[in-house]
């Protein structure tokens, strides 16, 4: 599930744009404002009878939301440093908190940088699940949807069926992995 928090700061309504992209792919998308409580009840419903981990960049409001959905533990929340505009790592470890019957929650420190090196180049496309149903249409079975000819993924991007932003992210990650590949 993807949660877009701080919707009070979303002045140009990026949420609607992202919601459309990710809902189409099949993700459940939720809009929250941890300051006013918007969307918090919806999150509580989703957490019921499950074990959930909050993941995402530091400073996005994971711990603030964590504090709003339960009253057993108070997590430290951090102001975003104006200097580096990155969140402080105030949550230093991950702990499984028993918030209700059969309901567990883990807050995490989050990350300021994603290390993708554990993903195989050929496997990366599986992280973009909307590519799946089309990749059989590529001419080459090992198509990376990058420089290859007769690529169905690139066709679908062209047709506007696969989001160009998502495809561009895929290529960013792919080229990063290719550059760091060790022989
Ligand atoms: N404007 C705004 N600020 C928020 C919201 N949620 C959290 N914050 C602020 O963002 C900062 C980082 O929050 P925190 O929960 O520590 O982020 P974490 O690193 O993801 O755990 C804090 O100063 C929070 O008060 C929100 O919905 N709107
Ligand atoms: Mg935190
Ligand atoms: Zn392809």
What does this structure look like?
The protein is of the alpha/beta class and 183 residues long. The radius of gyration is 19 Å and the shape is elongated. Strand 1 (2-4), helix 1 (14-25) and strand 2 (29-31) form a beta-alpha-beta unit. 31% of the residues lie in helices and 11% in strands. It contains six helices and five strands, in the order βαβαβαββααα. Residues 81-89 have low confidence and may be disordered. The protein has helices spanning 14-25, 40-47, 62-69, 132-135, 152-158, 164-180, and strands at 2-4, 29-31, 51-53, 95-100, 103-107. It has two domains: 2-107, P-loop containing nucleotide triphosphate hydrolases (Rossmann fold, 3-Layer(aba) Sandwich), CATH 3.40.50.300; 124-180, Probable gtpase engc, domain 3 (Ribonucleotide Reductase Protein R1, domain 1, Orthogonal Bundle), CATH 1.10.40.50. The chain has a three-stranded mixed β-sheet, covered by helices on one side. The structure holds guanosine-5'-diphosphate, magnesium ion and zinc ion (ZN). Guanosine-5'-diphosphate binds at residues 5-6, 8-9, 33-35, 58-64, 77-80, 87, 90-91, 110.
Summarize the structure.
With 183 residues, the protein is an alpha/beta fold.
Choose one word for the global shape. Answer: elongated
Q: Which CATH C-level class of the largest domain is it?
A: Alpha Beta
**What CATH architecture of the largest domain do you see?**
3-Layer(aba) Sandwich
- Main structural class: alpha/beta
């Amino acid at each position: 599930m993807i949660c877009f928090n701080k919707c009070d700061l979303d002045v140009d309504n990026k949420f609607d744009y992202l919601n459309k992209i990710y809902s189409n792919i099949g993700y459940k998308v939720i809009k929250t404002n941890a300051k006013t409580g918007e969307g918090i009840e919806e999150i509580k419903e989703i957490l019921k009878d499950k074990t959930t981990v909050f993941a995402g960049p530091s400073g996005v409001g994971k711990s603030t939301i964590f504090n709003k959905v339960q009253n057993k533990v108070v997590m430290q929340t951090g102001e975003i440093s104006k200097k580096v505009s990155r969140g402080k790592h105030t949550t230093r470890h991950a702990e499984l908190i028993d918030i209700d019957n059969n309901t567990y929650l883990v807050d995490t420190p989050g990350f300021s940088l994603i290390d993708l090196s554990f993903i195989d180049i050929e496997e990366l496309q599986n992280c973009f699940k909307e590519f799946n149903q089309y990749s059989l249409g590529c001419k080459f079975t090992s198509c990376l949807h990058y420089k290859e000819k007769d690529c169905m993924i690139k066709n679908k991007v062209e047709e506007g069926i696969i989001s160009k932003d998502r495809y561009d992210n895929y290529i960013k990650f792919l080229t990063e992995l290719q550059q760091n590949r060790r022989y």
